Amino acid sequence: MIRIGFSRHTSESIGREGSRESPENLLLVQVAKRDREALAEIYAHFQRPLFSYLFHLLGQKELAEDVLQEVMVIVWQKAYTFQRTAQAARWIFGIAHHQAFKALRRDAGTTFIELEAALELPDEALGPEADLLRRTTHEELAKALACLTPEHREVLELAFFQDFACKEIAAIVGIPLGTVKSRLSYARRALKAALFHNGWEAEPFL
Question: pTM of the entire structure?
Answer without folding.
Answer: 0.75
